[in-house]
Amino acid sequence: MSNKLTPTQHAILSHALAQTQGKVLWFPETLKGGAKAKAIESLVSHGLISQKKRETVVTKAGYEALGLKPPVVEPRTVRTRETSKQATVINMLKRAEGASIEQICAATGWQPHTVRGAMAGALKKKLGLDIQSSKESGGARTYRIASQETPTCQA
Fold this sequence. Notes:
Distance between the termini: 48 Å
Number of strands: 5
Shape: rod-shaped
Number of helices: 6
CATH topology of the largest domain: Arc Repressor Mutant, subunit A
Oligomer: single chain
């Protein structure tokens, strides 16, 4: 399709971009029933809007048809099981020196009560890990996994 939009298409796309961050929620009052359905069908068939699940949004082609630059979408970093916070805690506890609550808080961004809860619930109860703790005189309490036979992180 050329960049030539009908007045109705222009109004729908302009409103979506200006008022609702690209979501198509508004149609002119003159569009009722079949005319509204035809307008939506035309926008979809020309690739100007996209209907995904329950949301209708303006596409890259819709932005370009209005002479605008589409927004740049930053790719999200995908967290895998190997890079999850739980896996980070398990790896820290596997070290010979173990880890303190403070070290785990710094690595995960969790509060101390969250670390203790994760060790008691997810690690001990759910995964069945044998977590031992020790405290040197005047030092911080250190936690470590007693046996090196640890299951893979399944959380």
